Amino acid sequence: MEFQQTDDNERQTIISDLSEFIGEHEAKLDNLMVKLNWTHDKTMDCKPLVQCPVNSDHFVSEETLESHSKQCQLSQHGYTLEEQEQMSFLDWLYSKMKNVVSVKLDEKLQSDILLQGTVLSLVLFSSHTF
């Protein structure tokens, strides 16, 4: 009978400690959610994740996939976050300017242009006399 009493007291102490712990941390999480302007309903609204086409280790929401893929590809090419932000700003700036025309090059055309420029500079350099 004495053993049962001690076991119940211990259990009640553990339950009390856990309840206190949960209460403290729940309050901290509530404060954090208020600062982030989040709600409990919003955090429980889980949307399916899709795999990033650039890095198969990344999973993002479908609504952020396009912007993530762009950033992920730039990161893989060695661009820093600061450089990516500058590019983003320039994209926005150019989209507001009416006299700037957007030109998109595929890799083949870009490679051809660079090759022509390299060949031209070699020809000009080799024909230059000192």
Structure write-up:
- The structure is a single chain.
- The chain is mainly alpha-helical and 130 residues long.
- It has helices at residues 2-36, 40-44, 65-76, 81-96, 107-127; strands spanning 49-51, 59-61.
- The longest helix is centred in the first third of the chain and has 35 residues, at 2-36.
- The mean pLDDT is 85.
Set down the secondary structure blueprint.
Blueprint: H1 2-36, H2 40-44, E1 49-51, E2 59-61, H3 65-76, H4 81-96, H5 107-127
Antiparallel strand pairs: 1-2
Short description:
The protein has 130 residues and is mainly alpha-helical.
* Rg (C-alpha, Å): 30 Å
Termini gap = 108 Å
Low-confidence stretches: none
Total count of strands:
2
Q: Strand content of the residues, in percent? A: under 5%
Biggest β-sheet description? 2 strands, antiparallel
Average of the residue pLDDT scores: 85
Number of helices, where a helix is a run of at least 4 consecutive DSSP H or I residues: 5
Helix content: 55-70%
Features:
elongated; two-stranded antiparallel sheet; mainly alpha; single chain; 130 residues; 5% strand
